[in-house]
Design a protein that fits this description.
Chain lengths: 270, 243
């Protein structure tokens, strides 16, 4: 069994399933554009002069929040999709059927969210096109190779967080503290909607515990100011350290959770 | 080359002088098998001892399991298929200790509940998906699905139909096709006759007999006539033990 065949099968399955809900698909795309328009008009209302916290990035509010949302939307896919997918499989009774096959944990994890990443890539393209043609956004100084490196390190880190979060779904079905933190605090403390520099000292200290802070800052600096490697090496080192711990921990914990569910006979429960 | 045969399950070659292929003469053995389901936390309930030192040998051929509701038949089949981890006792395949990971490679299970498919996908797409997880190429999955559907009186139109638009009986047929199409050395069928019409039952009996010629088939049923028609020996399970 090749991992490629498994991943392809999952993507095909999810594509066919999503296609059968056409209205939801169209409304999702419209919601993305409406969301962007809100930040565009906020940016228009206040203008770049009223945003001194953005000075290190050398850009206005709309451009800042636009790239942060596009970036966070993609890497956040990893964080949110594993638990969501798993919960869906539990409730429709297919999780146990999948895990009754010789499918290993690694290919399963790689395949489970593959469609979500494909769809997030499509959304990213929508963002890019909207930014270029609708909102006339330009990023002339961007250091794209460095942005890509930040992207890869961040995506791995958030996927690992998503896998850890899905362990709670396997074991407790509902009640997921990792997802709760990710959903409620990443936006507030991670610098997605505003730079973390505007936070009070004690919240700033908390924000340093979250990988999103390093990911968004490094990405924004690379994209808006064209920062080079030496300027973001601290953020890259932090992301690398998170990856080093979280990726193996995620796979290990997920194996433990599935084995525990096999032991208690709750793999098929929801 | 004269001494080499090809395994019909694994597609690999084996030495004929060493008796039969490892895959084709599968014998699954359970010794003192124990499975306890813990009570949910803070529920005040007591753990459920579903298997209580059960012994069983399933070799090439068809073995039937009978017993009252809650006697442990389903738990036994799910444990032998590697879905559940046993809490005690020993499980072996051809004399070697078999971990759940290995059992999932060697065995396929048709569960008692056929609603374990993606409802928004067609039956054929579902079979293609689960086939891929079992290592089957899409063309092989389709070919086997079409052949087995004919045997179970499931029309080609129904194979193309969305799963949630199938009748319960046809859902059961799709579930049977998923298990049979893997062609594993061990096949476990939990209440396989449920919801099937007469023609499909006859087709299923034929399929079970054919499969039993090369595999270890274990099936449970509350329909004594069909169970005896399918199985050359029937074992009674009660209170988590074989009698």
């Amino acid at each position: 069994m090749t991992a490629f065949r498994v991943i392809t099968a999952f993507i095909r399955r999810d594509f066919l399933s999503e296609r059968s809900y056409r209205l939801s698909f169209a409304l999702g795309a419209l919601a993305t554009l409406a969301n962007l328009a809100v930040f565009y008009f906020i940016g228009e209302l206040f203008g770049p002069a009223l945003a001194p916290g953005l000075a290190p990035y050398g850009t206005g509010y709309f451009a800042y929040v636009f790239t942060a949302l596009a970036f966070f939307g993609y890497i956040g896919t990893g964080a949110g999709s594993y638990a969501g997918r798993l919960r869906q499989e539990q409730t429709q009774g297919t999780l146990e059927a999948e895990l009754s096959t010789p499918l290993g944990i690694l290919p399963f994890l790689a395949a489970m969210s593959a469609w979500n990443f494909v769809f997030a890539t499509f959304e990213l393209a929508v963002y890019a096109l909207a930014g270029l043609f609708l909102f006339r956004l330009r990023l002339p100084a961007a250091n794209w190779p460095l942005a890509a490196l930040v992207f890869v390190l961040s995506a791995a880190c958030f996927a690992a967080l998503g896998v850890i979060s899905s362990c709670f779904v396997v074991l407790f079905k509902r009640g997921n503290p990792v997802a709760w933190v990710l959903n409620n605090f990443e936006g507030l403390l991670g610098g997605v909607y505003f730079p973390v520099a505007v936070l009070p000292g004690w919240l700033l200290a908390v924000s340093k515990l979250l990988p999103v802070t390093y990911a968004v800052r490094a990405f924004q600096l690379a994209v808006h100011r064209g920062a080079d490697f030496s300027e973001v090496k601290g953020d890259l080192a932090a992301l690398f350290a998170f990856d080093l711990v979280l990726v193996p921990a995620g796979v290990w914990l997920f194996s433990l959770a599935v084995n525990r569910a096999r032991k208690t006979g709750t793999l098929g429960e929801y | 080359m004269k001494n080499r045969g090809k395994c019909r399950f694994a597609g690999t070659h084996y030495n004929r002088s060493a008796a039969l292929c490892y895959h084709c003469c599968m014998q699954i053995e359970a010794l003192g098998l124990v499975k306890v389901f813990p009570a949910p936390l803070f529920s005040g309930g007591r753990p459920l001892r579903a298997l209580d030192g059960l012994d069983l040998t399933a070799a090439q051929g068809v073995t039937g399991l009978e017993g009252p509701n809650g006697s442990g038949k389903t738990t036994l089949l799910r444990t032998l298929a590697g879905i559940l981890r046993p809490d005690g006792g020993a499980l072996s395949a051809d004399g070697e200790t078999a971990a759940p990971e290995r059992l999932r490679t060697l065995a396929a299970l048709c569960p008692a509940n056929p609603r374990t498919f993606y409802f928004r996908l067609s039956a054929l797409e579902n079979l293609r998906f689960f086939g891929a997880l079992a290592g089957l190429a899409p063309a092989v999955s389709k070919e086997r699905a079409l052949a087995l559907a004919g045997r179970l009186a499931l029309s080609a139109e129904d194979l193309e139909r969305r799963f949630d638009r199938l009748s319960e009986g046809n859902m059961q047929k799709v579930s049977l096709i998923r298990a049979f199409s893997r062609r594993t050395p061990a096949l476990f069928l939990d209440e396989p006759f449920r919801g099937l019409d007469e023609k499909a039952r006859a087709g299923l009996l034929e399929l079970i007999a054919e499969t039993g010629r090369g595999s270890a088939v274990l099936l449970s049923s509350h329909l004594p006539e069909l169970l005896r028609a399918a199985a050359s020996r029937v074992i009674k399970v009660e209170a988590g033990r074989t009698l």
